[in-house]
Write a structure and sequence with these properties.
The protein has helices at about 75-90, 100-105; strands spanning about 5-10, 15-20, 25, 30-35, 45-50, 55-60, 60-65. It is built from 2 helices and 7 strands, in the order βββββββαα. The two termini are about 35 Å apart.
């Protein structure tokens, strides 16, 4: 979720388009080996690091298009918006509930008039 920069819903094609920001990750292969000594009761654990296999790469760049099969794209958009709204809130209990932001994130429209 941290790599999502923005999203767009194409209602005509029933698809959700996620725009992902560039994020650098480090990939490493660490091999753990454990050596047991029969004569000695102490077991030793050795960690071998393969420095040649450590590499940096850019993986999260571009767009991801989601075309749901069994559910409506609206359901996925509402879930994504609700999750984003909850992440914007602080753990403070007396925080003001911004209903207009909630409606914009979950439904894509401003708060309905009552």
């Amino acid at each position: 979720m941290s790599s999502i920069q923005s999203w767009h819903i194409n209602w005509e094609l029933n698809e959700l388009i996620l725009n992902l920001m560039n994020q650098t990750k480090i990939q490493s292969n660490i091999k753990n080996t454990t050596t047991y000594n029969i004569n000695n009761s102490s077991n030793t654990s050795n960690t071998k690091i393969d420095y040649q296999s450590i590499s940096k790469f850019n993986e999260f760049t571009g767009r991801v298009i989601i075309r749901p099969i069994d559910v409506s794209v609206r359901m996925i958009a509402e879930f994504l918006g609700g999750y984003t709204f909850l992440n914007l809130r602080s753990p403070e209990k007396n925080q003001y509930l911004a209903e207009d932001i909630f409606y914009k994130l979950t439904t894509g429209i401003s708060q309905p008039s009552i």
